[in-house]
Amino acid sequence: MSEVRKKILIVKNLKKYFPVESGLLKRVVGHLKAVDDVSFFINKGEVLGLVGESGCGKTTTAECILRLQEPTSGEVLFNDINLVTLNQNKMREMRKDIQMIFQDPYSSLDPKMRVADIVGEPLDIFNLVKNKKERTDKIKQLLEDVGITAEQMFRYPYEFSGGQRQRIGIARSLAVNPSLIIADEPVSALDVSIQAQVLNLLNNLQSKYNLTYLFISHDLSVVKYISDRIGIMYLGKIVELNNKEDIYDNPMHPYTQSLLSIIPVPDPTYKKERHLLKGDVPSLLNVPSGCRFHPRCPKAKDICKEKEPELKNIGDGHYVSCHLD
Asked: 77, 75, 91: which is closest to 38 by C-alpha?
């Protein structure tokens, strides 16, 4: 596609360090580097998938973008406005344009509230409806868009399945008509058959509401289905970023190659070479020197142990953080 699209979100050198305290005086003895110099952008109307193992910093990155966690340093530019510098009142207004779909549909909905009030609460907070009838009509429309009938709007969350609860959460995020939605593992708690339904729903809603997604997951198969571009995270850093076709067909980073090699293939006759990683994921409290992937990398050289590689564009928007040619 030759069309140049506007960058709706630009993340520059984002860091989130959590202090580690020790002793009665709670002196800071170190830092847990949950997000360590992360940079990426999302074009308006696209889906950027962010993938990595549990604990790699995906969710913390999302929370820093929304200022649910205060970044240690870096910039988060949303429509050219640096969210990091906004006061709480202005950031609250910006959350009307950036919404989040949470991972667990069982804990993200208030069990004491009826569905109509869960979906209608954002309308009330931002004064988006003029009267009770307009509010009810809007709630009915939002629920209908996600596959929940108007007759169900006065029920409580416990009366719905996991997939239905996630649909309710999606309807709530759409209530304020956002332009960017951060979906944090939105299907990981659902059965596989329900995952497909929710992913198709997100695709349909993207077209209807002109949405942009940051889609976070540990599942490369899910991310491939919904994303336009994919970023691979490891120990708080993005190690590879490219369009999904090239990520799957021509992965350059050894970590990406390993992740892709263990995806199951439905054809039992197809022999697939697996790149199994040695050792465990290092602690974020004690990040390896040089390239933080080198203790597990089958191709590591001496330079990998000594110098941290930069995330470089090797051509056509394919970014890789690796010393290997």
From this structure: 75
Please report the pLDDT score of residue 95 as a whole number: 93
Residue 122 · residue 162 · CB < 8 Å: no
Regarding beta strands 237-243 and 229-234, do their DSSP bridges make them parallel or antiparallel, or are they unpaired?
antiparallel
Query: C-alpha dihedral over 95, 98, 103, 105, to 10 degrees?
Result: 70
φ, ψ of residue 191 in degrees (nearest 5)? -60, 155
Dist. CA 293–CA 304, nearest whole Å: 9
Task: Give the strands of the sheet with 27-43, arranged side by side.
Answer: 27-43, 7-22, 73-78, 81-82
The dihedral sign for the CA sequence 108, 232, 66, 42: negative
Question: What angle (nearest 5°) sits at the alpha carbon of residue 190, between those of residues 186 and 193?
Answer: 115
DSSP labels for 78-124?
A: ETTEEGGG--HHHHHHHTTTEEEE-S-TTTSS-TTS-HHHHHHHHHH
* Of 33, 16, 14, nearest in space to 75 by CA: 14
Segment 111-138, tens digit of pLDDT? 999 999 999 999 999 999 999 999 999 9
CA distance 58 to 217: 8
Q: Tokens at residue 307, please?
A: 């110098």
Please give the Cα distance from 240 to 321 (Å, whole number).
Answer: 6
Task: List CB contacts of 33: < 8 A, sequence separation 6 or more.
Answer: 15, 16, 17, 236, 284, 287
Provide the pLDDT for residue 144. Answer: 97
